[in-house]
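Exercise 7b. C-alpha cells:
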C-alpha cells in the first residue's frame, strides 16, 4: 500500500503509528513523513540498528536476543510492540533483517521479519527479498506498508 493511502486511512480512523527499525534505520518512518498531513498520525520512530538498543530502547527481551540473535520473528514482534508502547501509538511496526551483502548470525541476506502490533493484533510476516542492500531495504519498507495496510483497509 502506498504511504499516502496509509496516512489517509490512519487520519480517517483517528489512529496513529510508530516504528522500531533495525535494517531500515528509520526509512519506514521517513517515508511516511514525506506525506503531507502525516504529522497528525505518525508518532515517531526508534532506530535500533545496534542489537543492544533493541533491548534498551524498544524493550526487546535480552534473553531472546542472546538465544536467537537480532534477526528473528519474535524480535520483530517485540520491536512492533515496543514501538507502539514507547511512542504511545495505536499501531507499531517493527523491522529486523539482513540487508546484505553478507549474512548475519546464520541468517541469509534478504531475510526480513516485519512485525505489527495494534488493537488485538500481534503478527509477523517474513519476507525473502533479493537484490542489493537498497533493494532489500526498499522491499522491507513495502512489506511493512502492505502488512499495516491489510489491517487498516
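Sequence design result:
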Amino acid at each position: 500500500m502506498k504511504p499516502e493511502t496509509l496516512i489517509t486511512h490512519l487520519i480517517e480512523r483517528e489512529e496513529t503509528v510508530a516504528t522500531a527499525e533495525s535494517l531500515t534505520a528509520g526509512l519506514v518512518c521517513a517515508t511516511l513523513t514525506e506525506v503531507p498531513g502525516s504529522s497528525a498520525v505518525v508518532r515517531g520512530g526508534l532506530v535500533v540498528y545496534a542489537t543492544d538498543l533493541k533491548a534498551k530502547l524498544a524493550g526487546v527481551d535480552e534473553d531472546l536476543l542472546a538465544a536467537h540473535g537480532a534477526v528473528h520473528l519474535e524480535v520483530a514482534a517485540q520491536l512492533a510492540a515496543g514501538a507502539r508502547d514507547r511512542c504511545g501509538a495505536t499501531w507499531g511496526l517493527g523491522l529486523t533483517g539482513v540487508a546484505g551483502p553478507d549474512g548475519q548470525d546464520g541468517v541469509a541476506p534478504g531475510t526480513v521479519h516485519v512485525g505489527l502490533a495494534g488493537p488485538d493484533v500481534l503478527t509477523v510476516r517474513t519476507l525473502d527479498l533479493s537484490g542489493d542492500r537498497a533493494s532489500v531495504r526498499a522491499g522491507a519498507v513495502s512489506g511493512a506498508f502492505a502488512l499495516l495496510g491489510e489491517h487498516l483497509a
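Instructor comment: The chain has a mean pLDDT of 97. The longest strand covers residues 111-118.
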